[in-house]
What we know:
By secondary structure, the chain is α+β, with helices and mostly antiparallel strands. Helices cover about 20% and strands about 35% of the residues.
Amino acid sequence: MSFAADSVNPMGQSYARILCCMCSIEIMQNPANMCVACLRSSVDITEGINRQLTIHSCRGCGRFLCPPWQSVALESKELLAACLRKIPGLNKVKLVDAVWIWTEPHSMRLKIKLTIQKEVINGAVLQQAAVIDFTVRNQQCKNCEASYAQGVWHAVVQVRQRVSHKRTFFFLEQMLLKHSAHSDCINIVTFKDGMDFYFKERQPAVRFIDFLSGHVPTKSKYARKLVSADHSANIGDFKHNYIVEIVPVCKDDLVILPAPLARNLSDISPLTLIKTIGAGVHVVDFLTGERQEISVEKYWRHEFIPVMTSRQLIPFVVLSVEPLLQAQRVSAKQRASRKVSVKCVCDFVSFFPTYLSTNTHKQQPKLTRKTHTHSHSTPLLFFFFCHSDSHGRMRRRP
Ligand SMILES: [Zn+2]
Ligand SMILES: [Zn+2]
């Protein structure tokens, strides 16, 4: 080995220039005393990393065995993490970067480009790229296997809501998807009035019913059927059946409360609107703005159905809002009256427009007492109902 002329780096330290021990080209001095090309040819840091691997995917539900079975998108971070965990020997090198190389989705191949670093001869660090090929193989997951096998379910939850429009049911569907509450289901069957959720065991079904009752007002009934029994061992195989009925009222429905229930709810007016459906039914008196919550127990004790549904609503436009000095009824919470002029949307295209005028009640905010002109949804809903007769025809007030 021979030294060439010294050179100085920007930090002021001087390095000797040497000749590579393999090919004798002039290089800066390094711990291996080899040029990069010779170093690469003599040492392969990707040695021990398997480049051809297999990952399993279920054709029925499209999930990948990460493990456990997870629904991850192609070229997603989650799938990349799962693939990297499957590469043996990756813990012996330093992983600098990993990116997807695009492959045709039907090719059943996944490609990842890795950039890895490893310390080689005499402390010299070598960086190298490697492409790992994954072959996607089909394997049926346990849930799909169970759903295809006959008679494997042990509990079924039949969720029903007997109404013409299923606003509450759609809300519940969104909640199920958001919280993945249906993840233990092995099969879901849709019916006209609701859905059947099948479970392999009884416990997930009970958890599922608890989730339902926490989000919508429900009542449930339970029945079980003996499938097989071993009398000598005193054990039996049962199929558990739960019927969960959701209250047949939805948001924005007009209801007439039974007199005992109205008296029970601080003497609220019987003609009320359903404001929201949560764990209970929230109603609002559109004349006073008074709100009350009907608990599940109270609802099923004094059952009622809607007089008119939100499908019969007609859009109105607010023309003006004027605050009134005297409130008509002051309840425990301070309320202020508003005079709201509204006009039916259909009148905007007719020749003789019709104007309406009414008083609304809106609870004032505690800090500011400014008039809000955009929060009259409740009183306006009253007009929507008043101006549509039972046949859905429009009536105009002179
Ligand atoms: Zn060399
Ligand atoms: Zn599956």
